[in-house]
Write a structure and sequence with these properties.
By secondary structure, this protein is α/β, with parallel strands linked by helices. It folds into 2 domains: 288 residues, 3-Layer(bba) Sandwich (FAD/NAD(P)-binding domain); 95 residues, FAD/NAD(P)-binding domain, CATH 3.50.50.60. The chain is built from 10 helices and 18 strands. It has a 5-stranded parallel β-sheet, with helices on one face. The structure holds flavin-adenine dinucleotide (FAD) and NADP nicotinamide-adenine-dinucleotide phosphate. NADP nicotinamide-adenine-dinucleotide phosphate binds next to helix 4.
């Protein structure tokens, strides 16, 4: 009987799985029956963002945490698909840090070319899953969000690719309930324009705090305070930005910090990360992990230890993104089809423990980039995913991190070279700090309005 593969989620990870099978088909292999469920009306996951907050048009939790003016926070050369280059997609070199819409277009380009849309059931949410040990089958209950009809599907293999940056982790702080200004989690942030002239407090010290903070600076916030739990980010912030240790409590509009300082704020943004949450899975198949580079219980970061018919893609914290999801999807495909033999449970556990031990000893961000590079190398070496120069990408990550430390407002203006095509990125017509229209049209065609030629004023400034 033909293998039946279910995929939950058609973001970059789920699409990588579709593409992995398509690549095998193009090489003449028989491929399984595939069905992918996507709760939104289009694919792209986080990159298919929305203006909505809370619930979407179907009454489901809004998935994407992305917002207006979000640009890639790492060089695009670090995430490039090795079987579909930026040159192939755009037909010309582009800059290294494109806005969301440009990357969304790139993700879509590859799967549209691969003709895999036929496998995806849109507007269909996975609700419930059971596994029958005797028959080794998954039964997945899904709901068609257009008709509200539920149906069940039976699969031999199940791929979980629902992402892990959409269920907020929102800690309680004493007095926050009576803070008179706006309090929101980064998941609900849609754009910083409304923070013009405001005094903002960001709690958290990772990518969201950094980027929402600097978006707010770009849009004219009066001041930005970043409150950290473990360690400050330590960038050379603009003059209106400071870092403080953790908030101890709020009293009215005043936040008190653990170093005894305090400040009055108009709004608080909880940039406190996200939870792994898989409400459609029973607890024994549901990954529980903090946001780390190597979650436990997944062999090669992909195969569920207690049930090797179950696969997770993209469950890691991410230096690498799209190309890592590809490497995982190719690996998962080959495990599903038997092209890769799995070792025993004990040997798999020993392998996981080696990675966890190494993870626990990582001294700094450079070592983290090397760690994930080595992880990718293992996956790619095991499959026919087109190899690329992983050491060169690891160096790109290190260059990028140094650029951030040198110039937190300017690192997105730097240029990097593709390891897939050798193409050097081109300088964008407008510095990130001055770019006030993040549309693909403006990005690609670059009219003079927000160009760095001093001839015209940026849109937002003109509007003030
Ligand atoms: P997602 O993109 O989250 O996609 C998961 C999909 O599963 C969604 O389409 C969702 O609708 C669907 N789904 C969820 N639950 C169900 C269900 N029960 N039934 C059916 N469908 C379901 N990465 C970068 O490389 N560069 C960046 O600049 C960058 N910026 C980011 C900014 C933010 C604010 C966030 C949160 C993440 C960012 N990322 C960035 C990382 C991003 O998570 C990955 O690029 C990528 O989107 C992960 O892909 P995924 O498919 O694993 O998950
Ligand atoms: P994250 O990287 O998981 O960081 C979570 C932060 O919250 C950490 O600093 C953590 O502090 C802090 N935190 C957690 N619980 C806390 C508590 N109780 N009190 C105080 N602080 C607490 O999450 P993220 O920053 O939201 O990033 C998620 C993903 O989004 C990443 O992949 C990132 O690349 C992406 N992103 C990209 C952009 C972009 O510009 N393209 C923008 C935003 C986000 P500790 O360090 O103490 O644990």
């Amino acid at each position: 009987m033909t293998l039946r593969v279910g995929i939950i989620g058609a973001g970059p990870s789920g699409l990588a799985q579709l593409r992995a099978f398509e690549s095998a088909r193009q090489k003449g292999a028989d491929i399984p029956e595939i069905l992918c469920f996507e709760k939104q009306s289009d694919w792209g996951g986080q990159w298919n963002n929305s203006w909505r907050i809370g619930l979407d048009g179907s009454g489901e939790p809004v998935h994407s945490s992305m917002y207006r003016h979000l640009w890639s926070n790492g060089p695009k050369e670090c995430l490039e698909f090795s079987d579909y280059s930026f040159d192939e997609h755009f037909g010309r070199p582009i800059s290294s840090f494109p806005p969301r819409e440009v990357l969304f277009d790139y993700i879509k380009g590859r799967v549209e070319k691969s003709d895999v849309r036929k496998y995806v059931r849109f507007n269909t949410v996975a609700r419930h899953t059971t596994y029958n040990e005797a028959t080794q089958e998954f039964t997945v209950t899904v709901e068609d969000l257009k008709t509200n009809l539920t149906e069940t599907h039976v699969f031999d293999k199940l791929v979980v690719s629902t992402g892990h940056f959409h269920v907020p982790s929102a800690p309680e702080f004493k007095g926050i309930k009576t803070f008179p200004g706006e309090v929101l989690h980064a998941h609900d942030f849609r754009g910083a324009e409304r923070f013009y002239g405001k005094n903002l407090l960001m709690i958290g010290s990772s990518y969201s705090a950094e980027d929402i903070g600097m978006q707010s600076h770009k849009m004219g916030a009066a001041s930005i305070t970043l409150s950290y739990r473990t360690a400050p980010m330590g960038y050379h912030w603009p003059a209106n930005t400071v870092e403080r240790p953790l908030v101890t409590h709020f009293l009215g509009p005043t936040a008190h910090f653990s170093d005894g300082t305090q400040g009055d704020f108009d709004a608080v943004v909880l940039c406190t990360g996200y939870q792994h949450k898989y409400p459609f899975l029973p607890s024994e198949m549901s990954l529980k992990s903090p946001n780390v580079l190597y979650p436990g219980n997944l062999y090669k970061g992909v195969v569920w230890q207690q049930n090797t018919n179950l696969f997770y893609l993209g469950a890691q914290d991410q230096y690498y993104t799209f190309n890592m999801f590809d490497a995982q999807a190719w690996f998962a495909r080959d495990v599903m089809t038997g092209a890769i033999d799995l070792p025993s449970l004990a040997d798999r556990e020993a392998d996981i423990q080696l990675w966890l031990k190494r993870q626990a000893a990582l001294p700094d961000h450079d070592a983290e980039a090397d760690f994930q590079t080595d992880y990718l190398r293992e996956l790619i070496d095991a499959t026919d995913y087109p190899p690329f120069d992983l050491d060169a990408v690891s160096q790109l990550f290190k260059d990028w991190m140094r650029h951030k430390h040198d110039d937190i407002l300017g690192y997105r203006d730097m240029l990097h070279r593709s390891v897939v095509t050798g193409t050097m990125a081109t300088k964008h017509h407008t510095r990130w700090l001055n770019a006030m229209d993040d549309s693909m049209e403006r990005y690609l065609n670059g009219p003079s309005q927000d160009a760095d030629n001093g001839a015209t004023v940026p849109d937002i400034v003109a509007a003030r």
